[in-house]
Amino acid sequence: MAAPFQNMVGVQVSVTARAKAVLDTQAQARGYSISAWCGLLFDMAFAAVCAREKGAIHTDADLDAIVGACLLLHARAEWDTAEIAQKLGVTEATVVRILDKWRDYRRGEV
User: Fold this and answer.
1) What residue spans define the domains of the chain?
2) Which Pfam families match (predicted)?
3) Per-residue confidence of the chain (110 residues) as pLDDT tens digits?
């Protein structure tokens, strides 16, 4: 994650050596630190569990939407906001506002 976030606390988890190796490879391939990659994976899983508890997940498509949203909202600087806007069918300004607000939220500013 590019910037330190306010109100964030650390947690510790243990994984097998094999899982750690896979996580390292995945993180490196995506340009993330292992900590940032694990944080993103946690965000996706946590969002899915919370949605399931609220009855918001009914199909695989619902789960896909949650995971996709988590990935989009962790936008990286090299992402092309014009391309995202075109694919979503919205203006680029809308995509920029969404990503800016998400960054503010993650920093605890909203």
Assistant:
1) 40-107
2) HTH_23 (PF13384)
3) 344 445 778 889 999 999 999 999 999 988 889 998 898 888 888 888 887 788 776 777 777 777 777 776 665 656 788 887 887 788 899 888 887 877 776 666 65
